[in-house]
Amino acid sequence: MSEPYEFEQKHLDDVLEKIQDAKVANELERKNADKKRADVDDGWNDVRYRSSTYSGLFETAMSVRQQQQMLEQREAEMNSVEHQAQVLERLRERPYFARIDVQDDGTDGAEPIYIGLASFSDAPDHFLVYDWRAPISSIYYDEGVGDVTYTTPDGPQQATVHLKRQFQIEDDKVVTIFDTDEAVGDQMLLDALSGESTTKMQSIVTTIQREQNKIIRNTAADLLFVQGAAGSGKTSAVLQRVAYLLYRYRGQLTAGQVVMFSPNQLFNDYIDQVLPELGEQNMVQMTYYQYASRRLPRFNLETLQERFEGQPDTDQKHLINYKGSLDYFNLMQAYAKSLNQSGIQVRPIKFRGQEIISADKIKDIYYSFNENYNLGNRLFGTKERLLKMLQSQVRTEMKAEWVDEQIENLSKEEYDSLMGDEEKEFKSDEDEHNYVAKIIVTNEMRPLIKGINRNRFININRQFVHFLKSVPMRTQLADYQLTDAQWDEGVERTVAQMREGRLSLSDMTPFMLLFDLIKGAHGERDIRFLFIDEIQDYTPFQLAFLKYSFPKARFTMLGDLNQAIFTKENAVGLQADLQHLFNPEKSEYIELTDTYRSTQQITDFAKAILVDGATINAFEREGAKPVVKVTGSDAEMVDIAKERVEKNIADHETTAIITKTLAQAEAAYAHLRSEIDLTIIRTENQRLVPGTIIVPAYLAKGLEFDAVIMWDATEENYHDEDERQLVYTIASRAMHQLTILANHQLSPLLADIDESLYVKG
Ligand SMILES: Nc1ncnc2c1ncn2[C@@H]1O[C@H](COP(=O)(O)OP(=O)(O)OP(=O)(O)O)[C@@H](O)[C@H]1O
């Protein structure tokens, strides 16, 4: 064994021994904590339940409270002991993955810093392992050997790095050592990338690249915008970023205050192991559809599939574009403001089928407040007045005939239960009658009160239509390539959809915003960080809405304008719009151009699909050229697919067959299922399973597979110029192998690609 190996093995043995000691100590602590908890549990037996007198009740409450406090304290101790046990277990498996020898300027000698998944010290301030997120660990990702500057809590520190070493440790043995003078050595990266794909995404802490590190550790920007080619590690960087933020703001930030909007549920499933692997809890993950559905429970919202497969004509595209614009967002704000003067749409309040407060009366109240009121205050003031009016209505109703009837019809049990347990004395029969009548009326009014509290008297559907109808008067539609007639047609479509309880994507966000504006909603102020993946599929309107809905959050947006499969050509304007939404001085734009997912051959091919795909650099990893095969029949396509999949299975590689639509996935599945063992992914709510899958393109976003078979890439399926991005998205899912099959005729989007970049099958 050579000298560094010997040294490092010995060091590893020492550290492992100390970890083992710490584990023993932890185990003892845990037993202690267990015992203390058992004592508390016993304590419950001493809690006396006395409820016959007030002081007895009070005493019981106090001792229960005391028990609870003790229990909470023990639980916290237990959790930290348990948390520590988990950390130690992880460290035991792999204590560290790198070492840097750093000499701070003005000090003697270099200190070796070992970097791992968590910190570990055997004495205060004596760190055997540094967490990868500690300030000093940043040197490992950012710098080579030589003079460096790193950030400490006291400001920048100059230092010299004498050694950078990377390790592979397996079963307590140092298997490989790489010494490198680059940031993160290519050899290590190559090793990390040469593995096979799994159904779960893995962490990348050992090989984070410099550009990615910038994304991970950024704490200054209100808007961090990452444009990155397919496979450039946007998702990876952002997940390690969440882990970093949870570490950096420990004690102030919880995983529940971090929200990630992801493209689909399958993707959530794919990434949900990364944070636990890093010893952190998962953030809140949801799709935009889920978010909107939660807020608009009465509507059926347009699904991912409907959105993707619906083919709007050009006029409709203009309409959709306009409805997604910032101009439209601003127009709605102006409309909302105008509601302070007039136009609020309300419904009368009815009780037992009778109108008791008319719509006009409600409007009068709404507009009785002076012009300094904003919409939120106006609504609040109206609610208060309405509730008061209901209260006085109770007195009137108590005398109504129906109340007498109800009282007469009460059984003895019902009557007693209305009276309650306690003995009551009434001065007269009339008093008793009134008492019961009041209860009956109040009960009957309860849903009304609830409705008022929930703003039901605002007719939000009608309000939305009122808004839509006002649009031609507020703007020059011609500026958006629309005529008034086209707009009116659009309004009619929306109204018809709303009647059926449906809302399209282009209407659902404006609808939510309008209601929020009327309510004067302040948004979810508890959320501190918001991540939006696949940003190119969001409209500026949606982003403005999210900013409004999460006013205290810092935003991280990631996307690839080349994969804009929904918004297509409009994605380009997005960046300009963001400058209106976020202070440009607090916005940072980072571009990732190096890609890691695919082999050089696949990346070169995918790049050629794009018209200007020049700024994408493949990490040098060799593989077979993509295969493009034009077949003579469906049967031939099935045969080739079968052959490929069988070979992949033999080579332990996972295959995804990607079709354009769900219907095509179903059709291909029907052909293939008797030939190959495969799973069809029909909805985003399915799980990703190991083995061969068949999936429509819009559900494959963000995922990756060893081998991809693009199914039926014919002219019929992919012909529009704006489908280029879709073809690129499909091709860029492949890590090692890409096969493109087309029955009879290849899509023109692929036909132009230089023949040297692929093999004709
Ligand atoms: N620094 C790295 N070290 C090792 N592997 C990496 C690194 N960066 C990215 N990868 C790997 O590259 C692959 C692609 O990464 P990721 O899915 O994060 O890219 P993406 O930019 O989100 O892609 P897309 O936009 O196509 O969905 C993953 O397998 C990831 O583990």
Automatic annotation (TrEMBL):
List, alphabetically, the SUPFAM superfamilies matched: P-loop containing nucleoside triphosphate hydrolases
Coiled-coil regions, chain positions = 64-91
Task: Specify which residues bind ATP according to the UniProt entry for this protein.
Answer: G228, A229, A230, G231, S232, G233, K234, T235
GO terms in the biological process aspect are: recombinational repair
The signal peptide here is: none
Give the InterPro entries listed for this entry: DNA_helicase_UvrD/REP (IPR000212), HelD_bacillota (IPR048228), P-loop_NTPase (IPR027417), UvrD-like_ATP-bd (IPR014016), UvrD-like_helicase_C (IPR027785)
- Where is each UvrD-like helicase ATP-binding domain found? 207-599
Task: Could you list this entry's UniProt keywords, alphabetically sorted.
Answer: ATP-binding, Coiled coil, Helicase, Hydrolase, Nucleotide-binding
List cellular component terms (GO): cytosol
One Gene Ontology molecular-function label: ATP binding
| Source organism, top-level taxon | Bacteria
Q: Which NCBIfam families match?
A: HelD_BACSU (NF041464)
Q: What is this protein called?
A: Superfamily I DNA RNA helicase
